[in-house]
Amino acid sequence: TTRVYNLTISEVAGWPDGYNRTMTVINGQFPGPLIEVNMGDRLIVNVQNNGVNMTTMHFHGLFQNGTNFMDGTYQISQCGIPPGGSFTYNFTVPDQYGTYWYHSHYSTQYMDGVIGPLIIHSQEEDSLIGAMYDYDQVVLISDWYHGLAEGYLADYLAPGNENTEPVPDNGLINGAAFFNCSLTPGASCYQQDANRTIFNFEQDKTYRLRVINTGAFAEINFSIDEHPLTLVEGDGVLIQPTTLHKLAVAVAQRYSVLITTNITSTDNFWVRAELDQYCFATSNPVLVDTGITGVLAYTDNADSAALPYSNSMTAETDSWDDVAANILCLDLNNTSIEPMIHIQAPAATVFYRIDSSFQIGDYAIDLGYINGTSWKPASGTSVLNQAYEMLAPGLSSAVVDNNRTELLNTTGPLSLGVFGGNQNQYVINVPDYEVVDILINNLDDGSHPFHLHGYKFWVMGVGAGSFPYNQYGNLNTTNPMRRDTVSVPAYGWALLRFVADNPGLWPLHCHITWHLEAGLLMHFEVQSKKMAQFEPPAAWAQLCAA
Ligand code: C2O
Q1: Residue 384, SS3?
Q2: pLDDT reported for residue 402
Q3: Atom 3 of ligand 1 has which residue's CA nearest to it?
Q4: Which numbered atom of ligand 1 lies nearest the CA of 521?
């Protein structure tokens, strides 16, 4: 089956929480429309850019096997779609399912509203968990700023800022939230439109909530008063059901949780999406006082007739004790959750150490570095366009294969593959089929949600301090969690393993938008000799001429 979606990008005035600002949105709506496919379908997405800036569309977590040029990353896998221009993404979704999302991959643009959910259904998934729930509900959670991201970005990257990320003004649940307009006198803020999202659910049913952090900076703690969450999926991987009260969702991660509407009181319940303010330079009192909340209302319940609320802050329900005390938090990024379908991690054949840090660079501009390279979008055409130009039949690789490390049991080899002399493109070339270990060392005082395109990786371990090399031979390979985005703790490490079987140029980057734009991005170039077999459409190359 072929599924076609038309996405038109434009600037509009919008006030998701009452505060009126300029947004960049899809089809005049926010959040963008749900893209829904079955595994095996062909997905065609026509993007028309009626905005004032460049755009690209990235389908987060999709493998794009054989269609690297449809990965939608600005100046990495394609040139931007210019204002007034259009481009058609066209690819199949053969071998993955679950909860994903799509977003602009041009600068900070997705923060302004260019996001939407993407769900892949499959018979396999249905046979394993389909009987466990009655209804399916997308829940997008995010931080939210009251201005265009490009303005904050300029301040953030200005000299001498010591990596102080802009502090969010609010958070949203499915594109809506309460905000107290009296806190910003003089701004155009519509109190009557500052309404929370209300989930009207039937009594005594089980709902699958697909919780997606579509934000840019904050990890978000998701909970629902009086309703335990049964975790069944993370980043498109089914999980042995695990019950918890609070879900900590890093930027770009997804989880499916089941809730059952079996409470017999007449209350409406708070749905909470609290931003973790640990990394905020200053704490935002608005977020502390009002919280980021939605409302769960049982449809047959007399109290739900009183909705929408006046937005007074009188909660009908209280938080779980352990959520309020901020204690219980199963660390979902380490190995404590177990996939339903066991896949043994094969032994690694190459090992790369990635040191991620922030440094005050030339002219005192604070930049993020990966092994000493701070990413900037390539000048001229995208890196992949450049690679294709050099990939005429018979040529080997676009990228110099240097310093590849044959591992193992060493004290941490450092790989240095730098693309064609471009100082801002750090590329590790994996020319052949390999099982790759990536040790990410986070030398910064905040955690970083690292995302690898084109793959799911096994999370072989996550920890504080430095990686215990003497334990390298003792890793649990039986059934570690597989995912595409993992939070690497402050001053800590994560060891990721992936099978390099998907030819292409795949970024690995911190998904905190400020950090990405500060340079925390590198690439893996995998089996580049095979890339020439996959022919991009003419329109793809033409984008670079525009
Ligand atoms: Cu969600 Cu590089 O992407």
Answers
A1: helix
A2: 34
A3: 60
A4: 2
- Ligand 1 touching residue 105 (CB < 6 A): yes
Sequence ranges of the chain with CATH classification 2.60.40.420: 2-61+96-324, 350-545
The 10s digit of each residue's pLDDT in 468-486 is 988 888 999 999 999 999 9
Return the closest-CA partner of residue 198 out of 314, 110, 287, 303.
303
ipTM of predicted complex: 0.99
Q: For 2-61+96-324, which CATH class? A: mainly beta
- Model confidence at 542, in pLDDT bands (50, 70, 90)? very high
User: Looking at ligand 1, which atom is closest to the CA of residue 485?
Assistant: 1
Task: Give me ligand 1 centre to Cα 58, in Å.
Answer: 7
- The answer to whether the CB of 254 is under 6 A from ligand 1 is no
Please name the residues in contact with 185: beta carbons below 8 A apart, sequence gap of 6 or more: none
Contact between residue 210 and residue 256 where contact means Cβ atoms under 8 Å apart: yes
pTM, rounded to two decimals: 0.94
350-545: CATH architecture: Sandwich (2.60)
- Per-residue pLDDT of 98-107, as tens digits, reads 999 999 999 9
Burial 401-423 (b: 16+ CB within 10 A, else e): eeebbebeeeeebebebbbeebe
